[in-house]
Amino acid sequence: MIPAEYVLIILSPIFFAFVAFEWWQTRKQKPAVYQWRDSVANFVLSAMHQFGEAVSLLLLMPLFLWLSQYAIWKIEFNYLNLLLLFVLQDFLYYWFHRASHRVRWLWASHVTHHSSRLMNFSTAFRQSLTYPISGMWLFWTPLIMLGFEVKLVISVVAINLGFQFFVHTRWWQHWGVAGYLFNTPSWHRVHHACNPRYIDKNFAGVLVIWDRMFGTFEPEDAAEPCRFGITDEFESVHPWTITFYEWRRMIAQWPQTTGFSAKLRLLFGPPQPKVAKE
Length: 278
Ligand SMILES: [Zn+2]
Ligand SMILES: [Zn+2]
Known about the structure:
The protein is mostly helical. It has twelve helices and no strands. It has one domain (about 5-270). About 55% of the residues lie in helices and about 0% in strands. The longest helix is centred in the N-terminal third of the chain and has 33 residues, at about 35-70.
């Protein structure tokens, strides 16, 4: 087993404890914070995602190791280099995430994560089986080319995702001064909202500085509560339907799309929501 899988498996009892605690704390709240069908879908989607990641890593590992022969440097393991790797990977995560909202081929996978009307810790589990097809892994290859050790890169990707579990909640309002530097539940609620002013904002993984630097930061406004989910009227709780929702729309639109550039736009242009973004 590779280290990346250890990271999330080691953390999983903590994740489940947080889900259980939040569910218990909010069980009498109206409207409901948890709906069991939604949470079951999230857990099944997580299992499908983990399976997809394990298979794709088996297939991609030879490619990553082959690439690493051509790395510019051989970066040795020390704490300063590890910190550098965390920051660089988080920077690439920001661009992966931003691209996932602007390029339909990537959105087709990422929409799974945004397709719930609820926001709770179990929403973090709502991930797509098809990320390897969309090419999420491509975003980490610059780190390998720079000379970071392949398994270390994979572990850091997993730790970044592990951190993001904690921002999926309506529980915490603010994290005080930490919110200047770090992604927080409040910033990430904005990211999951489909209110026009909140769309395509707060792409941060761990550090929110990238949003502040590149003009995509939007704070949560108490006067405008977040409406979670996507602009399309999509309500399925079936993992398979959720996973292939956007892929099926793309396939359905393919025969009606004429011309090479139009077909390219269909695949790699911006997402085409049924209800247009304002
Ligand atoms: Zn997103
Ligand atoms: Zn999220």
